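Quarterly update from the structural biology core.
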Amino acid sequence: MKRLSLLALLTLLPLSAFALTAEERGLEIAEEGDRRDLSFVDSQAQMIMTLKNKQGDQSVRFLRVKVLEVRDDGDKSLTIFDEPRDVKGTALLTFSHGMKPDDQWLYLPALKRVRRISSKNKSGPFMGSEFAYEDIGSQEVEKYTYKYLWDEQLEGKATFVMERYPVDKNSGYTRQVVWMDQAEYIPLKIEFYDRKNTLLKTLVFNDYRQFLDKHWRSHNMFIQNHQTGKSTLLEWKDYQFKNGLKKGDFNRNSLKRAR
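Predicted structure, tokenized:
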């Protein structure tokens, strides 16, 4: 009888009594997006990076990016510049983490040395682009706390809009506003707010394509800096998955032999 009485009482409670808080809902959305991209194992792709200044002058760079999925930590990535000649052989190695700052090393062939990127410098621009070093690593769920804001249509697509707040005290951002596609749980737009909580830049993801019937990758990523007028366009191609990459392909020695 006591059990029946308890069940009867629960049916009388309003639905709001079981509703998630905005923080819980935001975390739930982030975790679902992360879960859907598990088990890609590794990937590699070609990239064209176009830098444009306020006056419209632009420079183009050609890169390769390799990524290794790491289950109990953040992913490892290796970014290699192939052209033009003045940046050829430059390489960035990133070990992403969840609760602690990423480990990053930059190889500069002109100096023939590997330079570790200090956690205090992660907010600096990566090779003159509008992407900061902290934007380069995999976006592990634990890097942020979250808050769901509302549902919204973005260019005809239903999205969840949520804020995420960097855990790292050295982050260059106070918060980011993310528009997450409700069907596939992939980001469509991110607004970045600087340490003064002023809008710094906006990143837009376009031309998503699906691989292995599961993994979605944007082939066109455009980031606009609203404070300087500069922008960076990333165009991706030739994605390949499950290439047999190993941890040994992602270490400081791999930076120097990157070709």
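The domain at 21-256 is CATH 2.50.20.10 (outer membrane lipoprotein receptor (LolB), chain A).
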